[in-house]
Amino acid sequence: MRITTSFDYAATPEDVFAMLADPAFQAAKVEATHPLSRTASVTPKGEQTEIVTSRVISTDGFPDFAKSIIGPKLRVTETIVWSRASADGSRTGTMTIAIGDAPVRMNGTLRLAAGGSGTRIAVDGDLKAKIPLLGGKVEKAAERPILSAIEKEQEVGEKWLAG
User: Fold this and answer.
1) Which residues are bridge partners to 130 per DSSP?
2) What pLDDT was estimated at residue 118?
3) Is pLDDT of 129 > 90?
4) Is 100 helix (H, G, I), strand (E, B) or coil?
5) Cα–Cα distance, 71 to 19 (Å, whole number)
């Protein structure tokens, strides 16, 4: 299942990336999703920056068939590797979202560049659930929580940048 979205921040690409690369912002964005537990790290790796967040969430709001596969809680680990900035401040990134021990994963690309109200981040990912007979249903069930987490990140980011 393809997941494509974008969102804007009223700030320069340099300011938006500084926010994204701040461990305190990463912790705040994950905490805003009300996890049972969480970790966040930002690690420079040469000319790249790796951001890893992990959260354990309750599956209370999930469809019954998903809960029967997953159980009462689920670990979601997001790994993003951003490139160094281009001359115009834009960056590209790769993203992997691993969903628990289930064979459910989203791989995609990110683009951070001037646009919209200042900076636009575009997300293009492919969500796959390799579960016989139920893969499509699991992908559909996972789509809304993934989009909600992206929306929550934007909300936290807007507040963060507003000071």
Assistant:
1) none
2) 96
3) no
4) coil
5) 34
d(CA 16, CA 157): 8
The strand ranges marked E within the chain are: 2-9, 37-45, 48-58, 73-82, 91-99, 104-115, 118-129
CA 14 to centroid of chain Cα atoms: 19
- Per residue in 30-47, pLDDT tens? 999 899 999 999 999 999
Out of 41-45, 93-97, 102-106, pick the least confident: 102-106
**Cα distance between residue 161 and residue 115, in whole Å:** 16
Residue type, 29: K
Whether residue 109 contacts residue 124, with contact meaning beta carbons closer than 8 Å, is answered with: yes
Question: What local confidence, expressed as pLDDT, does residue 20 receive?
Answer: 98
The answer to whether 57 touches 51, Cβ cutoff 8 Å, is: no
Q: Using one digit for the tens of pLDDT, what is the confidence trace for 11-26?
A: 999 999 999 999 999 9
Distance, CA of 14 to CA of 8 (rounded, Å) = 14
What single-letter DSSP state applies at residue 156? H
Which secondary structure element, helix H or strand E, spans residue 153, and what is its range? helix 135-162
